[in-house]
């Protein structure tokens, strides 16, 4: 696969004290690359997670949901090339084997070991390959975050990472995070796996609160093709090694700065996934205002972002606001045709339900020729706002998903 | 546009006594074809209708909803080439002008005149062209149903009609129906307009009951691209000229036969729209069973039918049941991964959450090479069933919707 035209270079990412990454070969597929990631986490590491809402989720997701409730983590293992989804008890046994193997090595509880898998579905993760891959990883030299980003990827066309820092009561804390998602050649699902590592000292409950809040405005506001993976997972690990006074809630000194840094990293990660969307040629930001609530604005935004007719119009560099009207109307949210305004690149094309008489299409046409597209939709009903991100729908998407076979 | 490979020939359609169609040129676009349809209906004609749920609907839909409540119709006018949607008060004035012009000609109430429009949106229907077009139609010779099907079409690649008959207490009644939808070259919305004419003597209330019931299992069970038009309309007109004893409810003699005939025609029409789906190369029937209710089964079926990953897999002739699992799981309906079974062309690929060990892919591969694809999905939870219809997602869809401009 060619690298996405919307790719971003991998950022300089600081090491996180208490989080040591390693990669190795499990050879889940007939490829010569690392495909198993192992991150050892210091004792006392807090963990938080958000998971797919797909009810046909993988064993990894089912187990992860339960493990997160305990709040503590000692290790993360990520398998690439096999999602282990829809594999019943055999798939679950393979996950439990990995948890036991790492727990024996670290002298911790199996429930302290988090496992994710991504790749083809319906094939139980082979236990022998997993065992050998984990053994290789445990013995490997520590590696960079960029190597982690490359190893968790499957059909991604570029490695994706984000970083941020914050000051908490005079202590500087660092956040390094990686994600994989979209861009595929084997016909798998557009699985998204994201991992956030920080040396901040944070209670599990407040870490979860920060991650859940950021998730609502970032990962829950992106879409490539409206299809929800069975394996989507974002985990946040806080080792506490920065030595700041523990953040236990929104009133702790420095809590706002930490929450903002987590939000910033989640926003960066989520947008990188869109930038690697299958076949994407354009990155689209849709800002919805005037909705009856923020949640209503988000739903309207996603209805627009998921509309094949809107996405193909942007691919064709066509300011087809009629299709936007259609998408608003089908969203199932309060909307009034005669109060609706729509603009592209900061220029209104229609206001209050009518095309603008003096609408100047030239600047809009120029904007649509670019790679970064901005769409404004005002519903004229209330104060609800949301911004969502998507990519266009192109021949590349069809080629990736229809022209190859499992 | 080339004719869809899934096209069906236009059937022999009987004239309906009391319903006289005419077509004429209004020249809504710079084309040399009839684009205005006028059907005169006998006094006492019953009417029923179902309309789009898109809240940004056109004035035609808003007015139609109110007119149907009165239960009587004397005329139908259909404009092709301009949907008159998102055109505010100016669009509404154009519709009211048409209603007044026809009402004056027939000596009836304006509310007896039903108007539909389909085509580009955001441009008010030009009143002068509408007036001349209606005048031309009122003076034209009666025409065939096939001419009506051609005239209401915009980007359709073939004319679509369906017919049925029924015996009501010794009287034979006829139904002739036409529809337009999908297949486009100008980037409009995939608007669906359907018209059913019968000489049966039916009360408006029972006609509505039959149409609404059929709609749930036919028009509400098809999807091409998940985008809901602002103008979707299906109207049924019953002239009463067959002279049968009036059908007033499900207990009237012959009511079952009539309801079945209406259902049959709606099923034919809805499937013809899918067969002209934009870029369609394959017609897909998805039968869902074992859901907690019929409505739940329908929602699961539509989640599968709307999944870009499922639709591209079928385009690629790939029995990718993993994508079906994903689509079931994201539908938001009760489902249990470990009770789910999936099959193609009558062959089960996975049962009770596990791939079948003795799964023979050869007959499935042969089935997927054909034009008519059958998918079975059993949720293993209850007695709910539904069948939905869709088409595959191909490069043709992208070409039609992205490679052309408004």
Automatic annotation (TrEMBL), chains A, B:
Protein's gene: argJ
SUPFAM superfamilies the UniProt entry points to: DmpA/ArgJ-like
Major enzyme class: transferase
Domain of life: Bacteria
Pathway stated in the Swiss-Prot or TrEMBL entry: Amino-acid biosynthesis; L-arginine biosynthesis; L-ornithine and N-acetyl-L-glutamate from L-glutamate and N(2)-acetyl-L-ornithine (cyclic): step 1/1; Amino-acid biosynthesis; L-arginine biosynthesis; N(2)-acetyl-L-ornithine from L-glutamate: step 1/4
Keyword Lipid metabolism: no
GO molecular function: L-glutamate N-acetyltransferase activity; L-glutamate N-acetyltransferase activity, acting on acetyl-L-ornithine as donor
InterPro entries, per the entry: Arg_biosynth_ArgJ, ArgJ-like_dom_sf, ArgJ_beta_C
Protein name: Arginine biosynthesis bifunctional protein ArgJ
């Amino acid at each position: 696969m060619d690298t996405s035209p919307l790719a971003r270079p991998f950022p300089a990412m600081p090491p996180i004290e208490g989080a040591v990454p390693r990669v190795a070969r499990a050879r889940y597929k007939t490829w010569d690359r690392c495909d198993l990631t192992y991150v050892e986490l210091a004792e006392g590491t807090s963990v938080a997670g958000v998971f797919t809402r797909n009810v046909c989720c993988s064993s990894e997701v089912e187990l992860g949901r339960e493990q997160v409730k305990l709040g503590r983590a000692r290790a993360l293992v990520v398998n690439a090339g096999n999602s282990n989804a829809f594999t019943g008890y055999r798939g679950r046994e393979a996950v439990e084997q990995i948890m036991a193997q790492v727990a024996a090595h670290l002298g911790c509880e199996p429930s302290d070991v988090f496992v994710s898998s991504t790749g083809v579905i319906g094939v139980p993760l082979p236990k022998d390959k997993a065992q050998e891959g984990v053994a290789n990883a445990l013995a490997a030299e520590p590696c960079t975050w960029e190597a982690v980003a490359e190893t968790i990827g499957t059909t991604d066309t570029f490695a994706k990472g984000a970083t941020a820092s914050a000051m908490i009561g005079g202590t500087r804390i660092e956040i390094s995070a990686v994600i994989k998602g979209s861009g595929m050649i084997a016909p798998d699902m557009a699985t998204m796996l994201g991992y956030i590592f920080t040396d901040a000292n944070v209670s599990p409950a407040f870490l979860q609160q920060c991650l859940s809040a950021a998730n609502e405005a970032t990962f829950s506001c992106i879409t490539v093709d409206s299809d929800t993976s069975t394996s989507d997972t974002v985990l946040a690990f806080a080792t506490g090694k920065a030595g700041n006074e523990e953040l236990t809630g929104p009133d702790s000194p420095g809590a706002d700065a930490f929450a903002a840094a987590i939000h910033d990293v989640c926003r960066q990660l989520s947008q990188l996934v869109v930038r690697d969307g299958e076949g994407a040629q354009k990155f689209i930001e849709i800002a919805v205002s005037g909705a009856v609530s923020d949640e209503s604005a988000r739903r309207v935004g996603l209805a627009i972002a998921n509309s094949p007719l809107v996405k193909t119009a942007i691919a064709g560099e066509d300011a087809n606001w009629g299709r936007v009207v259609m998408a608003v109307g089908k969203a199932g949210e309060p909307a009034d045709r005669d109060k609706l305004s729509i603009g592209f690149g900061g220029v209104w094309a229609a206001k209050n339900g009518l095309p603008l008489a003096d609408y100047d299409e030239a600047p809009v046409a120029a904007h649509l020729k670019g790679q970064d597209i901005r769409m404004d939709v005002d519903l004229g009903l209330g104060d609800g706002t949301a911004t969502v991100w998507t990519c266009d729908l192109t021949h590349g998407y069809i080629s990736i998903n229809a022209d190859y076979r499992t």
